[in-house]
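From the methods appendix. Each design record in this collection lists the tokenized structure first, followed by the designed amino acid sequence. Records were kept in a plain field format so they could be parsed without special tools. The example shown here is representative of the layout used throughout.

RECORD:
FOLD TOKENS (350 positions):
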């Protein structure tokens, strides 16, 4: 992955002579808010890559900006304000990683199940990876290639692979390969040597190469015409709403996987996935409604399940679809209404 820094944002919000910076150093909170506004989204995405959770990213960014506000007098302008804010945000995330550990997907916990597990209960003692709304990627560089790179850096497979790295390796990889920091700059961020940074980078790249596919979703989606992409997303939604197992199976690869954090069980292969789909979501759960959305730079479907007591379809899961060619190779259903608000989605549908 290449550098995705926004030089326009640098020019707009940095420099020792920036009037807002001068005012902010003098204690003007409104000026500080204006100063960091162009950078909030990219800083939030960075925190998500580091932490694997939108909610943790919210907390980290809030804490980082508070730290930056309190320490603004120490910013001397020798680096860009953007770089300094990334330093503060990265250190904040490293503190959180040290306290909370890494986030997981069901595939990290054990082997797949051959048949549907009825009554699968959520595991509440696991810190689960969460989805990231594509709206958080808006407002980035104008160059389409840069937007693709930004989306690659939040793809599920990449963020999941990052979770297998210690915090220092995770930070080094993101700062160098995604954001374009030099080894010397990263060493200053992490209070270590450039040699240690280069060593951390080498180890991190090895793990990510083993855990993440060589072909990114952005490469796949660029080769897929819009008509086929709509057919896949609409076909998935329609099959779920109609209980159509044949329609669903027609969309899947032979080695498809389906996981549902916070449920521990997951399924691999067409037979196992079809058995799960037929026995649970397509028949046992009841009436579904769905809304197309985007998560982690990938197509996604927000699913709502009918609740007769509430008289409505209630938010149930954000289903992130990983494609290979024109078919679905992975379905990751992030179960829980707490995932819907960051996507700007309602808590219920009629």
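DESIGN:
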């Amino acid at each position: 992955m290449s550098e995705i820094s926004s030089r326009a944002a640098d020019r707009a919000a940095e420099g020792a002579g920036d009037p807002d910076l001068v005012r902010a150093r003098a204690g003007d909170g409104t000026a500080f808010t204006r100063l960091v506004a162009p950078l909030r989204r990219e800083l939030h995405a960075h925190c998500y890559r580091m932490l694997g959770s939108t909610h943790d990213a919210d907390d980290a960014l809030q804490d980082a900006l508070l730290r930056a506000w309190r320490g603004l007098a120490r910013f001397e302008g020798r680096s860009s304000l953007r770089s300094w804010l990334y330093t503060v945000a990265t250190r904040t995330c490293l503190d959180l990683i040290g306290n909370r550990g890494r986030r997981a997907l069901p595939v990290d916990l054990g082997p797949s199940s051959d048949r549907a597990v009825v009554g699968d209960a959520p595991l509440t003692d696991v810190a689960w990876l969460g989805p990231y709304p594509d709206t958080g990627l808006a407002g980035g560089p104008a160059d389409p290639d840069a937007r693709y790179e930004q989306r690659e850096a939040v793809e599920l497979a990449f963020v999941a692979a990052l979770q297998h790295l210690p915090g220092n390796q995770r930070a080094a990889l993101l700062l160098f390969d995604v954001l374009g920091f030099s080894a010397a700059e990263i060493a200053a961020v992490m209070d270590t040597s450039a040699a240690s940074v280069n060593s951390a980078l080498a180890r991190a790249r090895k793990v990510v190469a083993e855990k993440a596919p060589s072909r990114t979703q952005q490469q796949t989606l660029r080769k897929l015409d819009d008509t086929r992409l709509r057919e896949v997303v609409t076909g998935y939604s329609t099959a779920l709403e109609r209980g159509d197992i044949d329609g669903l199976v027609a969309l899947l690869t032979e080695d498809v996987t389906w996981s549902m954090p916070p449920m521990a069980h997951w399924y691999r292969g067409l037979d196992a996935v079809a058995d799960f789909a037929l026995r649970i979501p397509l028949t046992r759960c009841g009436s579904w409604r769905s809304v197309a959305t985007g998560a982690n730079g990938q197509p996604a479907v927000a699913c709502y399940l009918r609740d007769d007591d509430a008289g409505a379809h209630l938010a149930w899961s954000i289903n992130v679809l990983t494609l290979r060619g024109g078919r679905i190779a992975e379905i990751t259903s992030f179960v829980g209404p707490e995932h819907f608000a960051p996507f700007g989605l309602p808590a219920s549908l009629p």
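APPENDIX NOTE: Strands lie at 252-259, 266-268, 288-295, 298-307, 312-324, 327-335, 348-349.
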